[in-house]
Amino acid sequence: MAKNIPLHLNVNNRDFDVTLDPRVTLLDVLREHLALTGTKKGCDQGQCGACTVHLDGERVLSCLTLAAQAHNRRVTTIEGVAKSDGTLHPVQASFLKHDAFQCGYCTPGQIMSAIACIKEGHTGSDGEIREYMSGNICRCGAYPHIVDAVKEAAENIKRESV
Ligand code: FES
Ligand code: FES
User: Which InterPro entries does this entry report, sorted A to Z (predicted)?
Assistant: First the structure.
């Protein structure tokens, strides 16, 4: 059995010190140890995108990321994207406005990917949004509304930053 190791994680601007088996994934730490269950476990093998979070601002699949890889780094989950006063992130607001979900299971991952997709500058066309969001599967097939939501959020974020 692997020896537990001490890890320091910064999640949504909060510091956590945990001691864990080095084989534990970031997804399981978030959900099982830190009670941050907004990040979803779909396939648990890198196929669906439901577990997408940001590591130092870049999107990663937390089911394929070891918690040890997040040691002393900055993790952002769906619980950390709204402002502290409760104001939704523009991508969250846009998903609501465009009804970009049905069951909602894929939605946290979609939103985390969409925030990164906009930051990466991959929203030039519907096709580009579809391509750069293609790692996030929606079993309900809400794709047309998701594309509309990402497109409008990108425009709003661009407008706000001018
Ligand atoms: S749960 Fe990580 S990609 Fe599906
Ligand atoms: S809204 Fe149900 S899986 Fe996407």
Answer: 2Fe-2S-bd, 2Fe-2S-bd_dom_sf, 2Fe-2S_ferredoxin-like_sf, 2Fe-2S_ferredoxin-type, 2Fe2S_fd_BS, Aldehyde_Oxdr_Iron-Sulfur, Beta-grasp_dom_sf
